[in-house]
Amino acid sequence: MKLVTTHATEIAAAVRAGQARAHALVTAALEAISARDPALNCFTAVLADRALAEAAQVDAAVAAGRDPGPLAGVPFAVKNLFDVAGLSTLAGSRINREHPPARRDAAAVRRLGNAGAILLGALNMDEYACGFTTENSHYGPTRNPHDPSRVAGGSSGGSAAAVAAGLVPLALGSDTNGSIRVPAALCGVFGLKPTYGRISRAGTVLFSPSLDHVGPLARSVADLALAFDVLHGPDPADPVARPRPPEPCLPRLTEGMDGLRIAVADGHFRRGGDPEALEAVGRAATALGVRRGIEVPQVEVAEAAATIITLAEAGNVHLRNLRARARDFDPLTRDRLLAGALLPASAYLQAQRFRGWYRARLRAVFDEVDVLLTPTTPCVAPLVGTARMVVGGTEVAIRGHIGTYTRAFSFVGLPCVTVPVRDLAALPLGVQLVAAPYREADLLRVAAALEAQGFTAEPVLA
What is the pLDDT of residues 14-29, one digit of tens each? Predict the structure, then answer.
């Protein structure tokens, strides 16, 4: 079995049935990384010895008739802000290189490992998750497998590119304002940002604590659902990982869209993007038979408030190093964090007040519909090194504008999935599905319906 031709669900089924060996799958993945990653720069660390040892354990469990877990033998990798035992948790920074190695894996990494998945390494990202392009000045840019002259998106760019390139079938990323969804869309894969608090963040380097989420990226909806079913649940080590009744999503993918009310988000989400990005939504709406539109209120204000909260919290997190080691930051990251640290408390408090109002307004929207459909990004992946470009007829600062359709939903912790759209432009685009809190199963049902209509992700093998 060749890793690059399979999905996580297929790998796990084959390993559990004794039709494939985890050792062979991991070896194939390590060979693919060795051959292709130097040109893409997805990985900052490859854990070959650990991966081969874990593969041997999975194969031994199968041979002994023991259950190796629902993700048996599935290779995966994680954004380098997740603790990995034996590695310094870089979070994309120079400063963190000096930290001692982590003593144990992050909670999400442990949950995947306990389910039989095999960790291959750590992945590149924007410094401290502060960016949308993964053009890291310390570790180099991660390049888009569809066109290496272009960015992979960020801040989980290494995660998206590794999945898109067929190096791993599953990766973990984090999302504060769009950092799973943006790179997933630009690299043409599926990405899930769950409800705030749905998956434990224990053992991760936080960027903006009241906005940070973690979630999976994969090449199929079933893979997202399987990973999410393993990952979600309460954790005393993360106070925001709240207990909820278990709701396996994978078995529900076959339910279709019966009873779900879906609408296209109007207003802000019909503006500011290139024609093909907006047409992607039209194509998805046609495939789903959706004709209804609905206005999402005050999106521009929500974006501004999200920016204030993000930078104020992040500036506070990094305040000591900003004072003592400012030159060790990437200059763009440093300037944004310093601006956040200098924000007056009144601005932060006003943004939080608006957040409460906005949460109530979106609750009213989801009284009328179950799933919103929007673009994920306003354009395809920009060229590496691009600071400003024309998008939707207006010149914009691309690093900020590329998250214009994702921030408003992270702001109030709503679950979102991005689904790849192929053949509409020379490079991938994505459409975003958004639902009320804890309705991940509804999102994945709609995503599965789109996948059945040809909205698919295929690995880039060239």
Answer: 999 999 999 999 999 9
Please state the domain count of the chain. Answer: 1
The dihedral through the CA atoms of 149, 135, 195, 402 has a sign that is negative
Rg (alpha carbons) of the chain, rounded to whole number: 20
d(CA 108, CA 104): 11
Position 195 in a domain: yes
Task: Give the E-state strand segments of 225-370 in sequence order.
Answer: 262-265, 293-294
Catalytic residue among 93, 159, 174, 179: 179
**Catalytic: 156?**
no
- Residue 410 among the catalytic residues: no
Q: Is residue 88 annotated as a catalytic residue, yes or no?
A: no
Instruction: Say whether the peptide bond before residue 155 is cis (omega within 30 degrees of 0).
Output: yes
Q: Are 212 and 174 in contact (CB under 8 A)?
A: yes
Catalytic annotation, pick one of 93, 155, 174, 410: 155
Asked if the structure places residue 458 within a domain, the reply is: no
Q: What average pLDDT does range 101-112 have in this prediction?
A: 98
What's the CATH code of the domain at 121?
3.90.1300.10
143, with CB counted inside 10 A (0-12, 13-18, 19+), is: buried
- Residue 141: inside a domain, yes or no? yes
Instruction: Quote the domain boundaries for residue 270.
Output: 3-452
Tell me: the pLDDT tens digits for 331-351? 999 999 999 999 999 999 999
Q: What is the mean pLDDT of the chain?
A: 96
* Residue among 404, 396, 411, 418 nearest 268 (CA): 404
Q: Answer whether residue 460 is part of any domain.
A: no
What sign has the CA pseudo-torsion 160, 162, 167, 171? negative
Nearest Cα neighbor of 211 from 416, 438, 414, 411 is 411
